[in-house]
Specification:
With 128 residues, this protein is mostly helical. It has helices at residues 2-24, 30-50, 62-70, 78-126. Helix 1 (2-24) packs antiparallel against helix 2 and helix 2 (30-50) runs antiparallel to helix 4. The chain is rod-shaped.
Length: 128
């Protein structure tokens, strides 16, 4: 996701520098303000995508594992430990998937905003 967000930063900067300069040469109109608002929207979504998430779960704490499965009152068998760890991995995947889905939706909305931004700049250049 970070790589895609970085690509979106480049595409947004390129399109806005190329089209924005030409559109703003004849003053500020409705389409210019629309394009600027969409640019801020894209920027906000990019920040949302690049913001560091600390809610990802995909690691095991060795001390916790030893306490839970080896050093407890009754040590756990290997098959029971593997089963418990497999279920924990599955739960972690489900939790991470919710975060990834939010980031994916943000990327899709940002790409739509980029297309609308380009269209707004083109309409501003055309003077419509």
């Amino acid at each position: 996701m970070s790589t895609r967000a970085g690509s979106l930063v480049f595409a947004t900067a390129f399109a806005n520098s190329l089209l924005g300069g030409a559109a703003l040469s004849n003053g500020l109109g409705l389409w210019d303000w629309t394009a600027v608002a969409l640019l801020f929207g894209i920027g906000g979504l990019i920040v949302f995508m690049l913001w560091p998430y600390h809610q990802y779960t995909f690691r095991f704490d060795p001390e916790e594992l030893l306490d839970q499965y080896v050093d407890g009152d009754r040590p756990t068998t290997m098959s029971a430990m593997r089963r418990a760890l497999a279920l924990r991995i599955k739960a972690d995947m489900a939790g991470n998937w919710r975060i990834i889905q939010r980031l994916r939706v943000a990327l899709q909305i940002a790409l739509l905003f980029l297309l609308l931004d380009i269209l707004a700049w083109l309409l501003a250049i055309a003077g419509i």
